[in-house]
Prior knowledge:
Radius of gyration: 21 Å
Helix content: 25-40%
Strand content: 15-25%
Low-confidence stretches: none
Distance between the termini: 5 Å
Number of strands: 24
Strand order of the largest sheet: 22-23-1-24
Shape: globular
Bound molecules: ligand EPZ
Largest sheet: 4 strands, mixed
Amino acid sequence: MDRFIIRGGRPLRGEIAIGGAKNSGLKLMVAGLLTEERLVLTNVPRIADMDTMRALLLQHGVAVEDVKGDGGTLSIGGSITGTEAPYDIVSRMRASILVLGPLLARCGEARVSLPGGCAIGTRPVDLHLKGLEGLGAQIRLEGGYIHATAPKGLTGDRIVLPFASVGATENLLMAATLAKGRTEIVNAAREPEISDLVECLNRMGARISGAGTGTLVIDGVEALHGAEHRIMPDRIECGTYACAAGITGGDLYLRGGRVDDLGAVVRTLEEAGVEVTSDAEGIRVRRTGALRGVDIMTEPYPGFPTDMQAQFMALLSVAEGASMVTETIFENRFMHVPELNRMGARINVHGSSAIIRGVHGLSGAPVMATDLRASFSLILAGLAAHGETILSRVYHLDRGYEAVEKKLSACGALIERVRE
Ligand code: EPZ
């Protein structure tokens, strides 16, 4: 397993290109199941989860061609020859559950492994299943698998989500594009990745309105056709590197970043003493004065994103004063705390909240990544710490961030990957 060796204490200065969004690209690949024709995606991030999704689509008989040979443009197409999503793939990547709706809509059946839990929580899929039953699917759980059928196809209906679940919204949205009649998804998630998916589906001939609002209205059509779509920039990657500028007292230009996608992140950065300015091409983030403690509560978009919580925890651990971070989305997303404390942070967890007392500085230490965003939280701490930090289990990071050591080294960071 690869490790990173980081020598901290240097302000980051320079430019970082923000890649395509993992949490949009994965779903756009699944959207390729909704048509026999070719869906071409550009601005594709080269990350492990996208490779896992390619393997899953191949499992269904749908080929994913690397058009330019550099992983940046994928062409998805072909007939579906299998409707089973096996445990060994689904357990590795929870987003696999999103093939359920499209397979039901196209083939009238699907056998998808229950994803099981993951490091940050139990991650049930009850809202996905209840919603699909609302569209006329019959669902049976047996042997750790979801057995779903819709012999007469799916029929549109009004689905009210008790929680604005991103995945449930996406599964139902894709299923509804080929259902008979109109579907309304009320209390739908409003994340920018949902709007990106809606834009792509409409380009494929779907009839969807209400993106970005709490209610999506989908009028089912007979079939979708091929299209080309550029994946939106990754707002979480952008916010993560903004924290890198903040924690090192640096000055970074994040090319491709979009301020509107960042929602509450910009406000919170500014409250913490980080300066954010933007132009048509990207976002400039710098910090000249002291970092200040702020209180954060994670919420569905446009609230503060849970995927930025671990990164902010690192930033606030060296702020002046105290901060309180409350995680309302996942039940176990504080695993970076013990590792940060080993580097000298002073963080106490009380249930779903963590109290952070800012310290003057962190010290490098050997630490272990536990999940995707926690792994970058530890990199941020290492970039600010005195001395050397060794981060193990970097495979967590490689799932969702592209070329981290290259992007950071180009801005003055002393970071290298040790392959084992
Ligand atoms: C997506 O996960 C993202 N993953 C997550 O990013 C992100 O943290 C999350 O949305 C929230 O923004 C992808 O897009 C691939 P949810 P998802 O359904 O769809 C509960 C990252 O780091 N819930 O909005 O699984 C669930 O347990 C990842 O990139 C149910 O109870 O998120 C959780 O507590 C991590 N029943 C909460 O809702 C359900 O049927 C949020 O889940 C579905 C969800």
